[in-house]
Amino acid sequence: MWRTLMERNDFELVRSILSGDDSAFSALVDKYQKSVHALAWREIGDFQIAEEIAQDTFLLAYKKLPTLKNQHQFAGWLYVIARNLCTDWHRRKKPTMQSLEATNRKTLEKSDYERFVEEQREKAAAERRRELVRNLLDKLPESERTVMTLYYLGEMTSEAISKFLGVSVNTIKSRLRRARIRLKEEEPMIRDTLGNVHLSNNFTQNIMDQITHIKPSSVSNTKPLLPWAALGSAAVLVFLLMGASNQLLTRFQKPYSLEAQSETSIELLNVPIVLDVQSDTDTQRRIGSNVFANKNGGAGQHDSDAALASDSQQESTKISVLTEQWTQAIGPETGNVHEIFLTSKAELYTVSPTGIYKMTEDASGWVLINNTVPTGYYFEMPMAEHKGILYIVSFDEIFASADGGVIWKSIGLRPSGSVIELLITEDAFYIIMDDKIYRSTDAGKQWTPFNVGIKNREIFTATAVGNTIFIGTDRGVYRLNSDSWEQLSVGTFRKVNSIAVSDNTMYVSTSPNDTDLTPAEMKTKLIREIMRKEKSNRWEIFRSEDLGDSWNKITPSSRSFIDYFPLGGKIVAIDNTVLAIGSVNIYRSNDKGETWTNLGIDADSLSTPNSSIIAVNENTLYKESIYKLHRSTDGGKSWHPFMKGIVSSQVKDLLEYKDRLYAHAGTEIVQSADGGNTWSSIQTEAGKIDYLAYPNMTVANNTFYAIARDVDGRTRVCSLGSNSNQLVPVPEIPTVSGDIVNNDFYNIDDGQDTNILNEGEETQQVVDRVQSLKLLLNIIEVGALVVTDNTFYIDRNRKLFKWRKGYPDWVDLGLDTGENTQHRGFSLAASDETVYVGRQDGHLFQSFDTGNNWEDITSSLPLMFEDFNEIVFVGSTVYIATNNGVLVSESGINWRVLTDNTDTNIEIVSIAIDGTNVFGASDSGIYELDDRGKWWIISPEVPDRIEELVIHDEKLYIVTEKRGMFYIPLN
Q1: R_g of the chain, CA atoms, integer Å
Q2: 499 touches 461 (CB < 8 A)
Q3: Residue from 703, 662, 670, 710 nearest 686 by CA
Q4: Which end of the chain is more exposed for a tag (fewer CB within 10 A), N or C?
C-alpha cells in the first residue's frame, strides 16, 4: 500500500486526499519535507525554526488544499506557501531563548550539567559550521543560493527542483553549475554540512496527528445571497422544491468539478455568487498536429495563493501580489538558428537557443517539441539520423531520441571542442571538429582520436556517402580509407568551404588559401591552376561522379565582381539541381553544374560562411541567415523570413511608446499594437530595413528616437514619423561621423569591373552587404543613446559625445567610457543636467553640469559591486541597479541600498516605473518597492533570466535571455 502511494504522482494524491483519504497526504509530506525545510532554512537561517515552518507549511497546505485550482502544480503551490510563511515569520518578533546562565544550576545534577555543556559545545561547533555555510551561500545570487540549498539540504534532483520552483531543468542545471564554480573550494564542506542535517524522526507523524483536528477550507468563500428570513415564503418554497428533485437541482447548478477551469459570476443586489462550472478547455493554439514535449520549465506553472501571499505583506498597504500566471507572448520572429536538419522521411528540424523545433506537416510553421536539451547561443548543434534514431550534439553531451525529437536521452559525454558534424555509418560514430576527429565504435559511449593522415589540418565541412566519409579542410578534400585519411586530388592547396551530395554525385566549393604554403608548394599550386584554368583568387566549384576519384570544374563563368572575393561558396544539391551561394550572389543549375543562372542578390537573407542550407525539393529551400531563418519556395530566386512558431531569443531592448510596444530584434526595430502578438518592422527613410547592430532607441520629450542610417548611408539620430512606421532623420542634429568601413571599402580600384560597380542597383546591394559585414565583424557605431530635455548623449568608440540645439557638431565630453559598451555591464542615464555613466569595469561617474566635469564616485558608495545592470531616473531620484543590489539617491550625494524586509540585497536586472510605483525584475521574480523603500516579491518565479522589464497596458512584460517574451497582468 505504502509503495503504491509513493509511486503515485501529485495529482493522484491530491485527488485522493480531497476524496477523504488522508493517508495520501503522508506521501506528499514524505516527498516534500526536505525540500520545504531546505527552503525555510534558506529564508530563516535556523534549522529548528525552519522545521517548525515546514510543519506549518504542510498543515496550511492541507487546510487550503480544496482551493488549489491546478492540482498538477502542488509542488509550486507548496513553495509559495512556505515562502510566505517565512516572510510572515520575519515580520514577527523573533523568539528569545533563555541562556544557560539564566538557568538555576541547582536544578541540574552535576553530571547532567557537564553532559549538557558538552552537548552545547558540539551544537555550537555545528552551528558555527552551518553559519559559515550560510555565509558562503549568501555570496551567491539569490537564484543560485536557492538551488544549492534545495540540492544539498533538500536532497533534490535538478528535475525535482525544476518542478518545485516552476523553472526549466536547463535553468536549474545552469544555476547549479554557476554556483559550484563560484564555490569550488568550499563545495565539499557545504555538501557535508548540509547533508548531515536531519529532520525529526516523527516529523510526518506529528503532521498526520494534527490534521485530524483540521477541517479543510471550503472551496467557495462567497457570502450568502440574502438572509433566509428576507426571502419570503414563496422563495423558500421554490428552494425546497428544488432541493427535493436532484434533476431540478442539476439543471439549476452543475455539480462541482475539481477540474473546473473557469468561474461564472452571477450578481444579484451587488452580492456575487461564484459557481464553479465545468467548461471546455480553451483550444490550444498550435501549428499542425505534432505534439509538444512535456516540460516543467516556464513561469506560471504553479498557482499562488493570493490570500496567503497578501497576509505576509500587511505592513505595506501599497503592495499586492499578482495572482495571474506568466503568459508567453508570440514575440518578434527573429533569433539565431544552430542547425537545419532533414531526415530520411523528409521531416525538417531546426535548433535555436530556445529549443528544438519541427516543421508542421503542412509546412506552415514550426512547433517547439523539446526545450530540455541544453542549447546556447554560440555553438553549432549538428544532428544526425541512424536506423530511425535522431541524434544531436549539445555543449558537452550527445542526446538521442526514438520518438521523433520529443524526448531525448543522453548517450554520454562527448570530447570537448567545436563540432562541425556528427556522422554515423554502419560501423561507427564520428565527431568532426574544426581541428580533429573522434570515432566511437560503441554508439557514442567512448571516443578515441582518429586523425591518422590529417594532423594539423583545419576542418571546415564533412559529409558521408553511405559508409564513406569525406572531410573538407584547409588543404583540400580527404576521404576515409580503412583506418586512415587519404587526400584527394581536388583543391590540394585550397580551402574547402562546402561539400554537397546528391545520389552519388559530389560537389565541392573551394576558395584560395595560401597561408603557410612553402615556396615549393606555391610553385606547384600555380602550375596546377594554370593547367586547370583555375583562378587563384576566386572561389571555384568542382564535381565528382565516382566518389572523389576524378573531378571536373563547374564554376559559374559570369560572376559578380563581389563574388571574386573568397568569402563564400556554400553548395546544396538535390537530384540534378545545384544551388551555389557566393559571397553575395546566388547561382542555380538544373543540369549538375553544366550551365548556371545568376539569381542575383538577396540582401535581406545574407548568410555567414558557416550557415546551413537545406533543400527539401528543387523549389523549397531553407537557410540560416543573420538572426533569422529564411525559406525559398521558388528554387532560390527569392527568400523570405520563416520563423513562425520559433520563440525569439534576440530581443535586446523593449519599450512602450504611445500604446505600442517597440523592440530591437536581431538587426531591426519592430513594433506591436496588440500587446506582442503580431509585429511589423520599422522602416528607414530609404524605405528598407536597416542593419542596426545594437539597441539604440529611447523615448524622451514624448518622442521616439533611434540611431539609423539615412538614404546616403550616414549614421543619424532619427525620430519616428507621423505614420509610426518610418524613422526620419532629425534635420538639425548633425551626422554621427566616422563610419569605419564605408570609405575604405568604397575606394575600390576603378579598373576592377567598373561596368558592374557603376550599376546603381548592384551598388546599393553591395552597400547592404557592407552593413551586414559590419555586424559580423562586431564594428560598433553607437553604443548608447540618451536624451534629456534638448540634450542628446551618445557613446561611440569609447567616447561620450553631447549635442544640444545651437551646437554645430557633436562635442567630445572627454570621458573614456570603456570597452564593449554594447554589452550588459555598461549603463548611461541623464536627467536635467545630471549625467551618470556606469562603466563595465565597475566605476560610476557623475556629472552635475551636462558632462562638462566628471567625478568617479565609486569609492564613496555604500555598496560594493562589479557590474551595472541599469541606471534609471524617476524625476530627480536615480536608481543604480548593480550585480549586488540597488542604490538610490535623490541628490546624488547621499546614497542608500534598497533591500527586502530581511535586509537582504536584491539583484535587480531591470527597473520599470508605473506612475509612482517602482518595479524591479530579478532572477527569482518581479519585486515592487513599498512606501518604506523595501522590495517585496509579487510574482511567480520567472521562466528564465530577465533582460528587460516594461509596463504596458496594465501588464508587466519581460524579455528573457533564452525563452522569449512573457507578460502578466497587474492587479
Answers
A1: 33
A2: yes
A3: 710
A4: N
Say what the pLDDT of residue 724 is: 72
CB-CB contact of 662 with 652 (8 Å)? no
Provide CB contacts within 8 A for 315, sequence distance 6+.
91, 932
Q: What pLDDT, on the 0 to 100 scale, is given for residue 284?
A: 31
| Closest of 876, 877, 879, 845 to residue 859, by C-alpha | 845
In Å, how far from its chain's centre is CA 172?
A: 13
Q: Please give the single-letter amino acid code of residue 552.
A: N
- Please say whether the beta carbons of 166 and 940 come within 8 A: yes
Cell of 36: 520545504
Question: Phi/psi class of residue 552: alpha, beta or left (left: φ > 0; alpha: ψ in -120 to 50)?
Answer: beta
Tell me which of 1.10.10.60, 3.50.50.60, 1.20.1250.20, 1.10.1740.10 is the CATH number of domain 2-92+109-211: 1.10.1740.10
pLDDT at 651 over 60: yes
Each domain of the chain, given as residue ranges in start order, spans: 2-92+109-211, 647-763
| β partners of residue 267 | 272
Query: In the Cβ-directed half-sphere of 672, how many Cα atoms lie within 13 Å?
Result: 22
Could you tell me which of 422, 417, 396 has the C-alpha nearest to residue 341? Answer: 422
Counting residues of the chain whose pLDDT is more than 90, the rounded percentage is: 31
Look at residue 261 and tell me whether its pLDDT is greater than 60: no
Instruction: Please state which of the ranges 33-37, 103-107, 443-447, 880-884 shows the lowest mean pLDDT.
Output: 103-107
Residue pair 136/180 in contact (Cβ under 8 Å)? The answer is: no
Please name the residue ranges forming H helices in 713-779: 742-746, 754-757, 760-776
Which secondary structure element, helix H or strand E, spans residue 237, and what is its range? helix 232-244
Q: Distance between CA atoms of 226 and 239, rounded to whole angstroms?
A: 13
The predicted model scores a pTM of 0.59
- Which helix H or strand E contains 322, and what residues bound it? none
Which distant-in-sequence residues (6+ apart) come within 8 Å of 839 by Cβ?
817, 818, 826, 845, 868
